[in-house]
Records
---
Amino acid sequence: MRQEILEMGRKAREAAHQMGMANSDRKREALEKMASALDQERLSIAAANRKDVEAAERKELGKAKIDRLTISEKVLEEMIDGLKEVSLLPDPVGEITRMWTRPNGLQVGRMRIPLGVIGIVYESRPNVTVDAAALCIKAGNAVLLRGGSEAFHSNDCLAGILRKALKEVGLPEDAIQFVQTTDRQAVLDLLGLEEYVDVMIPRGGEDLIRFVAEHARMPVLKHYKGVCHVYVDSDADMQMALNICLNAKAQRPGVCNAMETLLVHEAIAPVFLPKMAEVFKTAGVELRGCEKTMALIPGCKAAVEDDWYAEYLDLILAVRVVPDMGEAIRHITKYSSQHTEAIVTANFERAHRFVREVQSSLVLVNASTRFNDGFQLGLGAEIGISTSRLHAFGPMGVEELTTTKFIAFGNGQLRS
Amino acid sequence: MRQEILEMGRKAREAAHQMGMANSDRKREALEKMASALDQERLSIAAANRKDVEAAERKELGKAKIDRLTISEKVLEEMIDGLKEVSLLPDPVGEITRMWTRPNGLQVGRMRIPLGVIGIVYESRPNVTVDAAALCIKAGNAVLLRGGSEAFHSNDCLAGILRKALKEVGLPEDAIQFVQTTDRQAVLDLLGLEEYVDVMIPRGGEDLIRFVAEHARMPVLKHYKGVCHVYVDSDADMQMALNICLNAKAQRPGVCNAMETLLVHEAIAPVFLPKMAEVFKTAGVELRGCEKTMALIPGCKAAVEDDWYAEYLDLILAVRVVPDMGEAIRHITKYSSQHTEAIVTANFERAHRFVREVQSSLVLVNASTRFNDGFQLGLGAEIGISTSRLHAFGPMGVEELTTTKFIAFGNGQLRS
């Protein structure tokens, strides 16, 4: 364990203790100050970002990676707006979620408190530095940030600006710390800080997430991938089903809440699938179908077993015709990543059963899978989506960055 | 990975899926059937238990261990009553904890669902087999049980009776599985079943818990120890403080919610401590004090640094006089295990501040630390106490054996 990482952990624990007692006004003030500081420091942010972008260009990292790395005017505005939005969210800390009275007169309740110290290990987008730090601060936590080496100068510059804002309003600057070395050993050291870090949240590709889950000594909140399904029931409204499937697949195919497999009831398939194939053809979606699908859509490729497990993140879709909803649910139970599944139906009983029996982080009736996102569901902003069930299942907002302690008010109660 | 343990995991996952859809009546029926089956099988339980007790006697395991191992009539009655109690608890599964409507008309809510498969690794008391299985079943989970080798025959017999009851009401018997080998490798195999076990709960001594936390590949809900504090404020009611301190220390000293360190405000110490010392002397409590304490209590031993960290689980108490409440909170923040802390005071402002600033799983005002227990706090029954903050902090009842998924009801909403 390197001494400097250990020291960061110690400072974070101390800062977390102070942050946990900070009142809502102070935290809101800090977030507003961060927003105005990013606005004022446009030049230094641009200069730091240029170093990263130039290095990426020299290394020929490719256009997509360089795009993600670049802090354009628009990206900066989004960071500033994000800070303002988070500043306006209600403070979850101190909320007493329930309170009841025991037969002996003891009043017992649960009070929301911060989780403590949160570690974030992430890849290229520098906006994560700002977005993640904002949510952690709002919920009264301290955060240790470890960004990708390609964005080192940008992240370091952004973290420095945020730290200064904390200090200016009288909060501990060490509530936001950025790991200043880019080697992989520093990540391993961070993942070993079980005494000082309460939870680790990886943000990035599946490889990064698996690496963090493998090596972390503290709990990890994560999702590996989103193999999301839409089931079009025999009683679906045809136009609604066409709209939802197009939106779920093609509105933004490269994200985890996009549809990857379409399941269609055999009674509606002969009418629905040819129409759907037309729509998908126009949208440039490649289909890979089961035998019945291939019989209904001329020229459709055959799906193999691997297609049912695939997260394409692209304009490709696996399609299967099922004899009934029971088989659709069995397919989902076997192949889904428990991220997001939707049913399109006008039938109350089947909608009711689908919601009860499908155990994914979001189950929708008659709406697009693309809604599995903290902002879209009304959580305000999200720090990620969890597909493991412990602590958080689904999008994680400020509330998921807290826990509850029990409190009890008595007048001398003793245990007998 | 041994094949039979892997197979248990597979069966548990399948059983968990069915349990998650079981309705409340069926689960209640199963628990009632388990209670009557234990009643009817008294002879076979006694015979199995005799094997374990006789083996323990041959190995000369000591009276305390043999007592814990023995299923007396009283212990059996408690197991039966426990099953009946759990059967009557409200079913947490399916509860919609909140529901709201988005501006686009999408109704979004959170619905309580089971965690899935729960692993329990525990030591000698065979009642854990029954108590833990009951709570897991109530919350719609499957459970994998691994008890201590000394109680093998008792646990195996009890688990067999519970499985039969599940089958008789039409629920999958594999929702309760008992690991039938006693070697340590089986525990390691179980702790490696990350694909099939959603959470592991160790029950036993600190060594067992550390072993599980070290080797488990899935999340672990645990507490290592309880170094619980009572702070007697300058404005404490003298008699209430005496009663609470005696109850917290001596009512049952061998448990995790017993007081281990007493902090006393210096303004009240000269009157309070000599009286308290009298009471503790009568109760047979040995005191280890700071210098100021020693000056007020003739014959009091000196506390050394290790005493402030100690979980005595015995009639021993560390005592420190503090200049103010701030110092009491700093002491707690440094030495406490975040289990349970109490303040005794008549002062509203200090009670309010203590509750806000002390971040332990239960913070009490004017009541004994001994109340940190699921049954005492009104949760019905508990599967353990968590002192790590993720998912659960404090006693864990049936609700803590569940999670929530998001649900959404729409009429064709698309993401734009």
---
Amino acid sequence: MNNITKPNLIFKDDLLTGENIDRLTRKLKDLGDIFNDKAAFAQMDGETVVYDVESSFPVAHGTEGGLFYGITYIHPGKVGQEYFMTKGHFHEIRNRGEYYCTLEGEGMLLLMDENGNTRAEKMIPGSIHYIPGNTAHRTANVGEQILSFSAFWPSDAGHDYGTISEKGFSEILIEQEGQPVLVPNIKQ
Amino acid sequence: MNNITKPNLIFKDDLLTGENIDRLTRKLKDLGDIFNDKAAFAQMDGETVVYDVESSFPVAHGTEGGLFYGITYIHPGKVGQEYFMTKGHFHEIRNRGEYYCTLEGEGMLLLMDENGNTRAEKMIPGSIHYIPGNTAHRTANVGEQILSFSAFWPSDAGHDYGTISEKGFSEILIEQEGQPVLVPNIKQ
């Protein structure tokens, strides 16, 4: 059995044992531009972890035809009425798509096309979401526990955070009467 | 909550409720070229289902930058000493990669590069496998129950079954003393 090997990565629990794992942590202090309620933000501890991402890069960044894999863990929490969420981005090569698969928790996947039309898909354990090309995407934790999801995307997609960092999405996801709702982004 | 919708697809159990699902069934009679033991093959019922594939194509085949998703279910069984397995293919655009995630059962992922070097990775529930570009891939069920796994691949990858159909892999996976082992393919 010379050429038979164990799998390189094990789903979720043992992801850490895999090779080429990149770890990224985003704290509140790194996300000052994405939350609208600046007064609520100012009263919170900047060291609070909002989310972690563990990614596997089996080929070099920019490789055409390759794929990357990662798991994002968003902690529960809010800034004012706004749920803890990811920065959100377009892909640098705009037409690159992506898949998200929800592992645990409750979330919302916000999707905005290049004309500024925003919609959201509910994320529940087991749900699979296709993010089309030319679509900005951001994920919010709307539950009481960790929201985690796996992602698969082209290794040449790249990330464009700038557009969203500057203008945000056309709608934001806030809690009203205990429920997540999309409302127009007054920042725009 | 105008623009908040349910997820399009639910992992595995409810995949059937999703839109744009394509279903494919491969029976023994469709796979006459992939098993080496022709005498054993001739004695089996050609209507026996070897595997099913359910796929989701959210964009058109050939779309650059898009991704496809599917689940393959390989039934347990053997033809002589050779395990039930998929046809196996290179991608038509050779440099396209793919991810497999094992859902249930026990399997082996056979990988062969363009120089004819074959290796295998064990598939167990939760294992994640990166299939690099320029690499033929085939999956065998080496357990007693269904082997199922999800796959994510570029929507412009395409399938080249011809090369494998003609020559097979350089090594085949057979059962010896109750264990799966790779041995040279005498057909080559």
